């Protein structure tokens, strides 16, 4: 029985090694296709009414298919929420509490280059275009003063490092910076108008499956 268990273990190990070697030879660093679920910390870089939107959470799903050896095309969709409270002056005189909340849904089309840099360790980097929906809610002094929502275009650059645990499973870390066009915001009940962007930085982890 012991010999049988050892034989099965060696067979599985040999099969996995053969599969990994085949991936390297064919440029399938992350399979012919792959999909991953991401959990990220997100920080919006612009200030809205001098209120920094930061410390949000981002959940996303991405999928890629190989175009050429090591070159993948794919997309990502996600959802983020960030909030902040702060005492500010909108007119230079009166101090008020501003409660700012943003919901953010990016739709991305990306190109990604991924290559094995060490046994089962894959480094990837790329960029792409995005079309994102955002909903900006602002409360002034405890009352709802403004609700703005819009779609904005953007571009992004990113990098990630993944480890292949099996011929199908991988996990790793990722970072991304995204630039978006401006959104016009008018704080109802005041003369305050501003153009704000949803430029953001994301840092997190992912777990994925290769096909």
Automatic annotation (TrEMBL):
The keyword Glycoprotein does not apply. Gene3D superfamilies: 2.40.160.20. Residues 1-21 form the signal peptide. It holds the Pfam family OMP_b-brl. SUPFAM superfamilies: OMPA-like (SSF56925). Keywords: Signal. Residues 8-211 form the Outer membrane protein beta-barrel domain. This is Outer membrane protein beta-barrel domain-containing protein. It comes from Desulfonatronum thiosulfatophilum. The lineage of its organism: Bacteria, Pseudomonadati, Thermodesulfobacteriota, Desulfovibrionia, Desulfovibrionales.
